[in-house]
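Fold this sequence, please.
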Amino acid sequence: MHINPKVIDIYHLNANDAHGGDGADFRACFAAGFRGVIHKASQGTHLPDRLYLVRRDRARAAGLLWGAYHFNSGEDIAAQVKYFLAQAQPDGKTEMCLDWEDSPRRAGGMMTLAQAREFLDRVDQAIGRTASLYSGNVVKEWAPHMSDDDRAFFGRHKLWICQYAAAPVLTDYNRHPLPWPKPWLWQYTGDGVGPLPHNVPGIGRNMDINHYAGGDDELAAEWAA
């Protein structure tokens, strides 16, 4: 499968310098062909990303689309949504995303299926459009437990799938189709695992990089939509 690396996802430990500052060069990232950045904004109910707002204006000035993701926990969903919105400060051009992956118990544990649905529903209502969902093994583990209504609900949200393989597989662990016919984004590599390329000029090596099966104009049209 041809890899079309168009979007990166980062957090404060990516591209920081030895003193904990910010070494991200978004102009070099754009020049290399990338067109979007989805940055961690928050985790749970009290953990912010200190570089989220610092980087937003610089990334946009370099021509990059901007997005925010929230790392899930099993804590109160209304509180998590309130915290995410406060940290992300989204406008109409900010892609909003739930990162639904394994979360350690010490950080509140992981969201259940019902909690993930509630989170997305609350964010949707707050921003007046649908958020997107990042997941890999977790959504495949929970998919067999989805009702028809759950499948319709989740299927209305763009899927950003994580799978470090030659191509993404859109089936659950029972080999039944997921609610999406195709992913919106595919995170094909992270930490040096998965197909090439792994490096992002201006940001760093062995990054989380995402494939988009379309052109720049198509990505822009689907962003925050």
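The radius of gyration is 17 Å. Residues 143 and 172 are 6 Å apart (CA to CA).
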